Fold this protein.
Amino acid sequence: MTVTVPSSSAAPLTAADGRPWDVVVIGSGIGGLVTASQLAAKGASVLVLERYLIPGGSGGSFRREGYTFDVGASMIFGFGTQGHTNLLTRALADVGEHCETIPDPAQLAYHLPGGLSVAVDRDYERFLADLTALFPHEAKGIRAFYDTCWQVFRCLDAMPLLSLEDPAYLAKVFFQAPLACLGLARWLPVNVGAVARAHISDPALLKFIDMECFCWSVMPADRTPMINAGMVFSDRHAGGINYPRGGVGVIAEKLAAGLRSHGGEIRYRARVVKVLLENGRAVGVRLAGGEEIRARRVVSNATRWDTFGSLVDEAHTPAAEHTWRRRYRPSSSFLSLHLGVRAEAIPPGSHVHHLLLERWEDMEAEQGVIFVSIPTLLDPSLAPAGHHIVHTFTPSEMAPWQGLAPGAYRAAKEAAATRLIRRLEAILPGLEGAITHREIGTPRSHRRFLGRHGGSYGPVPALRLPGLLPMPFNRTAIPDLYCVGDSCFPGQGLNAVAFSGFACAHRIGADLGLNPWNLPA
């Protein structure tokens, strides 16, 4: 895949007929693109404004010296072919697009303290057998816990996943799948930890389940909603982990193409600095150069912290947002390395995705857990012949990187990268000597290029909360202003923000009178 820089020519300030746009979307992350493309498919006039050169945000890709690197994670859910949880497949199909994907035989290989190593096989029974072999005395509890996750997943998979803010949708979906609705409602206030402890007592196995949650929620089980776990722990076996051929950025490129083919527009190098308010309502946006663009509805794909306090000043920030900030805090950002390596650095039979932790007490620590992706094991075209990509990242707070002079910043980056590479040699022996290309990203990099508050991965609970119930939906307390992305229900991950995009588009579609009567098949 060749990633090209899209045209920077300005989209018109109003829709083609001279009236305000129906919808302006701030940011072209996956949540914003799903919202925009869904609305365009419904017939709305839609403009997406992206501050960077390419779409996708942390779901994008970039090229360097023959390598195509994914900006963020490459462990992708949502490309299944059955049910309703295959949201990436559905979002693309709704605008006439399709991604060719490559199935991954395993979700993740864990390398944990005490020599605990297990790979999550795509086959559910094989995974249970592998985990039971490590904890034979917990055989009954292992099956009971993961089977409970399947109960949650089946409820989700039985219904079209649209806006929970639309009473008409809720009535229709309850009529279509009443048992699934009731079953799902049961799990909304529940976190994973309570369910795990109901079935399992072995402390080491409970720590493993903490890590199962942490690998995608960056929270242990007691602070991870059961709804999310039901989706992840089951969909990895149902729809499976599937890598888009050409890199993760292909998803965003195809959504952007689908948006344009349905009459929508996307404008790059367009940094929004203010949401325009008149009589308390959102009426458009102002760009860094002073241009003002009018719209009937405004959608922010920025984080909640960037939306309220920046795009909307503190004086106009609703009280509900201050309540939300007391409940949630920004997760840490990441120190990330994009490495090009000679092929011999990857041992034969390696899995694509790995997680490494040397000490349990470091799970939530600065640069504690290491995540690794080797996407060229699935798609060799992403690297020059005879080479692989090793993308590795570890949680890192913004504070240690702030206030450094340029020379000190470069030195700190190099020192941190060297430490990280040497730790990785526990699973990739000889890695340091096989590197031919290296890109280092810090929280400052993530803030600069992705425009995210503190470079954050997304919101995490500031205290123990009742499952997903406190998560905000898409509407805000400012009329005609909506939010989408990982700061909204149901949270982080490409499939989750796609869910948020479907919900946001449905809610706006209802407000604009654009939704079809029948639910999706």
In short: The radius of gyration is 22 Å. The mean pLDDT is 92. The CA atoms of residues 11 and 267 lie 6 Å apart. The chain is about 35% helix and 20% strand.
